[in-house]
Amino acid sequence: MHIMIDGNEVEINKGDENIIDVAARERIGIPAPCYNAGRKDGCCNACVIEIDGENKFACATKPQAGMNIIVNREDLIQLRKERIKEYQENKNQGCGCECSTNTGCC
Ligand code: FES
Among the residues of 1-106, which ranges form H helices? Predict the structure, then answer.
C-alpha cells in the first residue's frame, strides 16, 4: 500500500500509527511539539498538512492507501511556523496548549 507525499510514492505499513510516523521514517520533517512531548490529543495544531485538499494533523491522522499528502508548500510551512510560535508563547505562559481545549494542561 502506498500514499503520495509531496509527489513521491511512499509505502505504508500496517503498524504505522499515523502520518507523522510515516514522515519520520521517510525523513520528512513535520514539526510535532505536543506529540513529541507525549501528548496524543493534538493540541498544538503545529503538524498541519494537506490531505486530499483538506488541512489535517499529521499526528492524529492514520495513513490510508491512496492519500495525496502535501507537506512542503509555502502556505503550509508558514501556517506551521505560526502555530509553533503560538504554542511556544502559550508554553512560556505556563501552558503548552490552548486552555480552551480543557485537557488539563493549564
Ligand atoms: S503535534 Fe501537536 S497537534 Fe500534532
Answer: 19-25, 33-36, 74-92
